[in-house]
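Changelog-adjacent note: as of this version, every example in the card shows the full chain rather than a window. The one below runs 157 residues end to end.
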Amino acid sequence: MTITAAARRLDDPSFVVDFDAVVGVAAVQLRCAGRKITTAGDQEFEDIETFCNPKGEAPGAVPESISLEVLQSVGVGGLWNQLKPLEGQLVNFAFLWDGTVDPADDNPEMSGQLWIPFIPLVDAGPRKFSTFTLEFKILGTPIYTLAPPAIYAGHAA
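Full-length structure tokens:
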């Protein structure tokens, strides 16, 4: 198989947490606070050694997470004010590569549930902006959507 798709820039992503897709509760949109987003998995291998398979290993569980480098903000609509009350809670999330259009083969949406981590107040020196990275641990296996409709319908909102 030959890889032929063109490289893709991340211009207008949508990363939302704490929404209810059925009821339509407003989500916390993290796009404007974010500076860099990374999805990661920690591939673990299980011991399946037997007499017929010495030193045997096989893929096991893959804990996944989303890390978001953020620029801290406080006040009405601020990152700290929106996420601090959710700290330690399991919430719905959705990430869409291009938040302005529906999911497609070239615009995957990742969704599921994740844990809201500890939200620090500040990490900055004198006369500097506060930046840090939040790691959101995903519960179970995320869903990848490659066709409309999006799991979270309000990405572009």
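Structural remarks: The domain at 14-145 is CATH 2.40.30 (Elongation Factor Tu (Ef-tu); domain 3).
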